Hints:
By secondary structure, the chain is mainly α. 55% of the residues lie in helices and 5% in strands.
Amino acid sequence: MAAKSKLPLISLRSALVVALVTSVVSIGLLFPVAGHGQKSERTGSHSTRGLAGMPPAARALVDEAIGVVCTEAKLDPHSSMAIDVMQGRPSLPVQAPEARTGAARAQRLLPVARNLVEVALKQLVIEYGLQNSRGFDGRIQQGLERVQGVRNVRPDMESRDNASVFLSRPHTITFGTIFLAGLRSDEGMISVLAHELMHIADGDHDNLRLLVSAVGAKASGLTGMDIRGQRSEELTCDLIGAMAVRAYVADSPGYESLSRRLSRSVEHNCVSLDEGDDEHLSPRETIRALLSLNPVLVRELIYDREERQ
């Protein structure tokens, strides 16, 4: 049976996208950049129903939290590169020091990310009241088994700023070297590893569609954006990534501030050129939807920053 294709995480090259769609299960988000041969399509990514689902005070907190994240992205020496910055970089050889450092970090953190995804996914199932849904527990368990089967990270120059899983190598996540170099902290790397692993849990037949649809419906109601289908899946993966980082930060206290470490889970979305398409929210829309779904993260970002001022 032919596998369903998933788009790569951060893609710039049209030819690469075609190759991945026809031969791999590509994991992540596609953010086309104007001026690089791709037509920007905004159909459906604008708000269509207003923001009636969130009270004004809650929306203001989300705006404030976005400000914290994007300020930290500028001040933090270990912040993740913004998506549009990564897309504009020249290709990076596998043996480049920054690519090798990123690959080593990803491989070291992969076992940690696998366990964090398992906890986060089970928590999300409970939060959305799906623990008693007929047959869903079995699908979750199968998804977690697939996650635990992922053992390797493979750096690849041609993948540039993408991350993907090839059907011929289901136990390996392939990372573009630019992407590996752009994720300069443990927290940033865990958020992306968890994102990829959530795609793997969902599988090529959308086995976790019930949860993915529930997350998308809630996000749509909160933000007024049209978040269905592939958009729901990408946002659910981002949500799992943010939850994994929160758990990681809680389990590994350090000298850096809480808001700085938490910001690393989403700050790659603090772009100057904010473009999305029919299947993907734009980076800044992604931050807004993600934080709207996660009020605890919003409070932690804001109040930690206030306490330090």
